[in-house]
Amino acid sequence: MFLASFKGFPLSGVLLHPRFPPSWSGAGRPVNVPRGFGYNGRLVFRETFFQTRKTDEVKTFEQELRVRLCHCDPAGIMFHPQYFVILNGVMEDFFRDVAGLSFEKSIRSGHGFPIVSVAGEFPNPTFMGEMVHVAMTVESIGESSVTFAFEMTGADGSVRMLGREVAVSVRKTREGIESTPIPDDIRAVFEVYKRNEPLQMGPGRK
Q: Are 123 and 78 in contact (CB under 8 A)?
């Protein structure tokens, strides 16, 4: 009931990446695997790997993903709608793994956070087979709405996408859906991930 219900960009053998030092927290649900399969013989038991990084008292939800055939046009360049599909997957994992509200739970309870606004910029192209790093933070929190900020970078450090999505807390009623205040427990999670300054987008971005 969010922007899209599509989930999963399988990364066979996703391992603890050098960009993710072991001091960072939130490494998902790792399981023991034979030696040689990753950092300290631990493999993340997930389709996608995420980390929560703390910078200047602000936490950032992060994932690394491979750009696949299904994301690209015939020229092998990532098709722009697929950026938003990936962002939606990252946001879905954030709600599931951090906020405790999976999409399945959302459907059963009748409470969710559908997307009402999206914006994106694509400073540099992304190509099939590349690994991209997605960092998500909370930009602002209202009574019933929350704005997420995303930054996608390539392995070379170049910015591939800057994105912003606004979600609204809603509940299902007999008449349809209506906005409702963000629950206190979820609001508390959003506050931890709230950035100090808005994401810079547009011509004035440095």
A: no
